[in-house]
Structure formats: C-alpha cells, structure tokens
Amino acid sequence: MKKLLAIGDSFTYGGELASPVTHAWPYLLAERIEHEVVNLGVNASGNSKILRHLFEQNINEFDLIILAWSGFDRMEFADDHGIFETWPGALKKSHRIPHKEAMFRGELIDYMTRYHNDEYLYKQYLVNVISAQSYLKLHKKKYIMLDAFLNNQGGMRSHHQELVTQIDTDHFLGWPTETMMEWSGDAPKGQFGHFLELGHSRVTEKIYQHLTKGKY
Fold this sequence. Notes:
Elements: E1 3-8, H1 10-13, H2 20-23, H3 25-33, E2 36-41, H4 47-56, E3 64-69, E4 75-79, E5 82-86, H5 104-115, H6 118-138, E6 143-147, H7 154-157, H8 161-164, H9 180-184, H10 197-213
Parallel strand pairs: 1-2, 1-3, 3-6
Antiparallel strand pairs: 4-5
C-alpha cells in the first residue's frame, strides 16, 4: 500500500479535535486516496522543526509528502534541557519551562516578544521552504506544500523577491494568498483557534482536488 507522510504543527496534528486520528486532515486524505499515513504534526511546531522532521525521515519509504508550514514567526531554541519554541506576542506560556534551572527561558521569551524582527523571520521561513523544496526534488519525491496560517503576508513577501521567485508554485497549494485558515472558511473553531471537523474536511477536499488535477 502506498504511504503518505504529513509534517506540520497543531493544524496537521488535529489540535482541539475530539479524535485527531480519525478527523485530522492527514487521516481523512489518506483514506480518500487509499494510502497509509504517518502524521508528524506536532503541537506548537515552528518551521525549523518541520524542516528537521523532514530531514530525519527515510523519505524513500513514502509515495507522497505533504509539508504544512506553521506561522513564520515561531522560533526554535535549545539549551541543555532540550528544544523549545517561542512565539512572540502569542501564548507566551507555550515555552513550557520544565526545570527550575531553565527559568531564564522566560527572559528569552520576553526579549524575543519585544525585539524580534518579522522581516528576518519571514525570510527564514522562505529559506526553509526553498531548502525543503530542493531536497524533495533532489530525491524525486512527489510532494505538496501548503501553509497552516499567517504566512500569506503580501507586504513582507514583496521585500524578498530574490527568494519568492524560487518558490515552485506548482507544488505549493494556495501560494501566495491562501492558507488552511482560508480554506476552512466559516467552519467552527476551538477555544485556541483551531478549525474543527468541518474545517479539516474542507482542507482535505482542497488537497484532494489538487491531487486529482495533477493526475496523481
């Protein structure tokens, strides 16, 4: 049986769904196209983690790979206690300090919230996209990319044309103006803003139609 690999954040994991393993879009899509699925959607993942998860897999095991990029302004850091994410200005507690010795993480979160540079972070997002794209093409893999939310930032995109022109729009569903949030439309959302079952069904349909159009 063919295999699908999905990598992303909570919108790929199925955040706030009653049953992610039955209603998150990777599982709905896999059932629709008759694939087995490995879902590496992880809550609070930033794009550095998404890219690393791609590189850590034996991609030759998969027939289709879908990367669902997270918001460009999530950042990943590491210390002796492990890897943690920051998201400036939103959900500051999400860094989850697990050790008393790591209390300084809060200071880093506060600093990055106050002084991060959105232009730089958006540029890094584009670099991640291009790196993944080149890697998948090198290995001649069937792939799709899409955005979960936030990255359809026209103003910042216009400042990085040297990178934007390298995006393969044939493989990036919705580029440059649509994300999964747009596809979910008026679907009900959970307390933390994740679209629920109807939204995942709509995202599944959007990806399925793209695959069908591409004669996959």
